[in-house]
Recover the amino acids of this structure.
């Protein structure tokens, strides 16, 4: 079996909450989490979190990279980057070294751009 390189590993979805699904609890994972359904709780990962266009999350997120295309109510702490897509609706604070925000995103909160940890 061929070994996956780091780029491939970063794009493998470890966990998914699909459209029509609801989950409450605490996610502590390594890798990528995609939410297309409803989630309430906390998320802690050294990987990526993707909130799809149909995703609705009431959560605090701690991750390397967070991409929001749906609804998030809670705070986002990213060690690398946060990307807010035009379909995103965020109510909460963001702390990250890098922020990308498309035109049309709804954002109600504060944002702190901090430099990367050495």
């Amino acid at each position: 079996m061929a070994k996956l390189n780091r780029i491939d590993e970063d794009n493998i979805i470890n966990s998914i909450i699909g459209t029509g699904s609801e989950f409450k609890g605490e996610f502590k994972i390594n890798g990528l989490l995609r939410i297309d359904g409803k989630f309430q709780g906390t998320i802690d990962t050294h990987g990526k979190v993707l909130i799809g266009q149909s995703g609705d999350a009431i959560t605090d997120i701690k991750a390397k990279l967070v991409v929001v295309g749906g609804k998030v109510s809670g705070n986002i702490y990213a060690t690398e980057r946060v990307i807010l897509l035009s379909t995103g609706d965020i109510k909460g604070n963001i702390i990250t070294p890098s922020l990308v925000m498309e035109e049309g995103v709804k954002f109600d909160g504060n944002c702190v751009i901090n430099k990367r940890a050495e």
